[in-house]
Amino acid sequence: MNPATAHAESATPPLIQRLIDDYGYPMLGAADIDALPADDRVNVLFFTEDPKKYPETLDVAVVLPELVAHYGARLHPVIVARADEKALQERYGFAQWPTLVFLRGRDYLGAISRIQDWHVYLERIDELLTAEPTRPPGVGVPVVGA
């Protein structure tokens, strides 16, 4: 293992590392996400940011495997590499951390930010699983006319 990889792994909080090690969730960067199969699978991108700044990240890290277990093979979780989170945040247009972004293949379906009650997750995910792909929302930058 090279030192850069060792440092990156040691910087990953234990609950996030558990998703990778124990559950086998891949950690992907922007290029990998761009190469996801363009099929009907629903990929769930987990944007963690820094759990020290956003402690709810650790709550979502506990809930995500439960959601995947509930929905079975219909959800394919992915941990987004920290180095690419900001660029991908702009692409998917969310403003709060942590966020789960749902894609059918590579097509945007929607997002769920912050920790939610279980029934809210189920209702929203049920909607997203049957939703048609849409354009991601903007990041909230106001457009000013001349």
Quick structural gist:
The protein has helices at residues 3-11, 14-21, 30-34, 56-71, 85-92, 118-130; strands at residues 27-28, 42-47, 75-80, 99-104, 107-113.
Any chance you could write out the topology, listing elements then pairs?
Layout: H1 3-11, H2 14-21, E1 27-28, H3 30-34, E2 42-47, H4 56-71, E3 75-80, H5 85-92, E4 99-104, E5 107-113, H6 118-130
Parallel strand pairs: 1-3, 2-3
Antiparallel strand pairs: 2-4, 4-5
Uncertain segments are 1-10
Strand order of the largest sheet: 1-3-2-4-5
So, the CATH homologous superfamily? Glutaredoxin
Helix content: 40-55%
Overall number of domains:
1
Q: What would you report as the Rg, rounded to the nearest angstrom?
A: 15 Å
Largest sheet, strands/sense/barrel: 5 strands, mixed
In N-to-C order, the SSE pattern is HHEHEHEHEEH
Overall pLDDT level? 90
CA distance, first residue to last residue: 55 Å
Q: Quick one: CATH class?
A: Alpha Beta
Q: Return the structural class.
A: alpha/beta
What's the architecture, going by CATH?
3-Layer(aba) Sandwich
Q: What proportion strand?
A: 15-25%
Number of strands: 5
Q: Any idea of the CATH topology?
A: Glutaredoxin
Q: Categorize the overall geometry.
A: globular
Number of separate helices: 6
